Amino acid sequence: IKYSHGAKVLVGARRKGDSIAIEIYDQGIGIDANHLPHIFEEFYRAHEAGDRDAEGVGLGLAIVARLALLSGFEVTVNSQRNKGTMARISGIPVSARQIASAPVIDGWIAKPLDKFRVILIEDDQDVLDATRTLLGLWGCDVQSYAEMPIHVRPADVIVADFDLGDGQLGTDAIRTIRSQHGEAIPAILMTGHSGPQIEQHIDRLDVQILSKPVQPATLRSVLSSIRSRSRG
């Protein structure tokens, strides 16, 4: 996705006998043939003069290759410069175990955080959309904002990014919302900063801090814990 610059990316799976291969195709800038033998080396970056700068230090594919080796999978990459890339993880065994579906009660599918009211504040629109969708799948009633909200409806928890852009901070948003509703609504602060960098802004704010990138399982666990405490 990073090197496709808005072009389509296709992710699919192919069954081959008793194994599955996951394949990813893009229509991005591609990788020149002379780089392909080296792309799994640590700190190697297949960069050509004139290419756009992209984040990264050249460790991603090396980590993928190591994990695949430990798991008994095979990773291959085929690419053509200016045409696109195909990456494949193969040798994944097919599981015979059936995955249990979510329990259905009178036509209603159980959701772990059904009707849990969440105020979500995140200035990155892509992250905002993805997190709102995730919370919705868990059954949450979400109010989402890409900037400091002016007025919000009552809620059970606030989930805010620390940096909201234009000099605004998630800690300020939490204080403002709490003052509007006259209560210390439980809050989660998501940040990529280290402890000392945000401690001066917290000032006994009583928030749960989650370090970015926040794993969905971690977020759901913290939300479930907050819900359990509030019910208690």
Can you offer a commentary on this structure?
With 232 residues, this protein is α/β, with parallel strands linked by helices. It folds into 2 domains: 85 residues, Heat Shock Protein 90 (2-Layer Sandwich); 118 residues, Rossmann fold. Helices cover 26% and strands 28% of the residues. Strands 8-7-9-12-13 form a 5-stranded parallel β-sheet, sandwiched between helices. It has a 4-stranded antiparallel β-sheet with strand order 1-2-4-3, with helices on one face. A hairpin with a 3-residue loop joins strand 3 and strand 4. The mean pLDDT is 84.
Rg from C-alpha positions?
A: 22 Å
Mean pLDDT: 84
Question: CATH homologous superfamily of the largest domain, by name?
Answer: Response regulator
CATH topology of the largest domain: Rossmann fold
Share of helical residues? 25-40%
List keywords for this structure.
2 domains, 232 residues, Rossmann fold, Heat Shock Protein 90
Quick overview:
By secondary structure, this protein is α/β, with parallel strands linked by helices. 26% of the residues lie in helices and 28% in strands. The strands form four sheets. It has a five-stranded parallel beta sheet, sandwiched between helices. Strands 1-2-4-3 form a four-stranded antiparallel beta sheet, covered by helices on one side.
List the helices and strands and how they pair.
Blueprint: E1 9-16, E2 19-26, H1 60-71, E3 74-80, E4 84-93, E5 104-105, E6 108-109, E7 117-121, H2 125-137, E8 141-145, E9 157-161, E10 163-165, E11 168-169, H3 170-181, E12 187-191, H4 195-202, E13 208-211, H5 216-231
Parallel strand pairs: 7-8, 7-9, 9-12, 12-13
Antiparallel strand pairs: 1-2, 2-4, 3-4, 5-6, 10-11
